[in-house]
UniProtKB/TrEMBL annotation:
Residues covered by the FAD/NAD(P)-binding domain: 54-260
GO CC aspect terms: mitochondrial inner membrane
Keyword Cell wall biogenesis/degradation appears in the UniProt entry: no
Alphabetical UniProt keywords: FAD, Flavoprotein, Membrane, Mitochondrion, Mitochondrion inner membrane, NAD, Oxidoreductase
Catalytic reaction annotation: a ubiquinone + NADH + H(+) = a ubiquinol + NAD(+)
Keyword Metal-binding: no
Protein name: FAD/NAD(P)-binding domain-containing protein
GO molecular function: NADH dehydrogenase activity
Major subcellular site: mitochondrion
Family to which the UniProt record says this protein belongs: Belongs to the NADH dehydrogenase family.
UniProt organism field: Papaver somniferum (Opium poppy)
Membrane topology designation: Peripheral membrane protein
Length: 275
């Protein structure tokens, strides 16, 4: 089997190809694709290209389309928060932080607005968010305090979590992480986010939390592409796979990584479909 992405790179000299659909009723072993970007092509700077649509035949197909950040459909998250998934997310976070530092330099700014701009909020208390909050606070203490010494009393990191941080880890580790975060200057807040506005978060208990930078990382779930696939799903909506990563309802198709999940709850249905 040739790698689908590799064969597409050669043909279109582009790495930006999106799989739209697998198979249709008549043609069993086809992947339907379209280009999604000019990047890497000679006219990169030009207007967006019309998507180029094509099909790729396969003998064996491995789907590894990853997952997408979960927002639980909370109003305003997609519009106002930054996610912690891809390189461009990291670049956007850095850009926003530096922009807010520059804005906070404005001498005519009311104190409350200055504090808002410099308030960095992280939602989610899993390993990624704990690590990120600690790193951000470390960066603030080591670099920002030196370069922007006049803002050092106003810049803060708050981590909001509905339960304990690192709830899947044992108590000793949780306590250690909590102490380390507090030592780094991270404020820990227990709360459930109800909605997100451009400049503030509203919690379930009615508390307003003004912010200048909001980073959202509350786990991952199925992407729209995975949702659109007409295959059996595991609990949580990822592609249901058996212990050999096969998708039992489609012959010669496998799912690996974050897009698939093996589940005991669905195994009986797998068995029925496999027959
Ligand atoms: C901040 C962060 C920290 C992490 N830290 C750790 C860690 O310390 N240890 C650990 O084990 N895991 C960690 N993880 C999780 C780990 O990154 C993922 O489990 C892993 O990347 C999943 O790999 P994947 O190939 O399934 O998906 P991804 O790495 O998400 O790759 C999927 C790719 O498929 C592409 N794609 C999606 N849909 C289509 C489509 N329709 N057509 C074509 N291409 C498509 C996407 O653009 C993407 O490039 C971390 C994740 C994050 C976000």
């Amino acid at each position: 089997m040739r790698s689908v992405a590799f064969s597409l790179c050669i043909r279109r000299q582009s790495y930006h190809v999106s799989v739209r659909q697998l198979n249709d009723c008549e043609h069993k072993d086809l992947v339907y694709c379209e280009t999604v970007s000019n990047r890497g092509l000679p006219n990169e700077q030009g207007p967006p290209m019309e998507p180029y649509r094509f099909k790729v035949a396969y003998d064996k197909l491995v789907i590894a389309a990853g997952a997408e950040p979960l927002t639980f459909n909370i109003k305003g998250v997609k519009e106002h928060a930054f996610f912690l998934r891809e390189v461009n997310n990291a670049q956007e976070i850095r850009k926003r932080l530096l922009l807010n530092l520059m804005k906070a330099d404005n001498t005519g700014l009311p104190v409350e607005e200055r504090k808002r701009l410099l308030h960095c909020v992280v939602v989610g208390g899993g390993p990624t968010e704990v690590e990120f909050s600690g790193e951000l606070s470390d960066f603030i203490i080591k670099d920002v305090h030196e370069q922007y010494s006049h803002v050092k009393d106003d810049i803060h990191v708050t981590l909001i979590e509905a339960n304990d941080i690192l709830s899947s880890f044992d108590v000793g580790l949780r306590e250690y992480a909590t102490n380390q975060l507090i030592k780094c200057g991270v404020r820990l807040m227990i709360g459930i986010v109800k909605e997100v506005h451009e400049k503030k978060i509203v919690l379930n208990d009615g508390t307003d939390v003004p912010y200048g930078l909001l980073v959202w990382s509350t786990g991952v779930g199925p992407s729209d592409f995975v949702k659109s696939l007409n295959v059996l799903k595991s609990l949580g909506g990822r592609i249901g796979i058996d212990q050999w990563m096969r998708i039992p309802s489609v012959e010669d198709v496998f799912a690996i990584g974050d897009c698939g999940r093996e589940g005991r709850q669905i195994s009986s249905e797998f068995v029925q479909q496999d027959r």
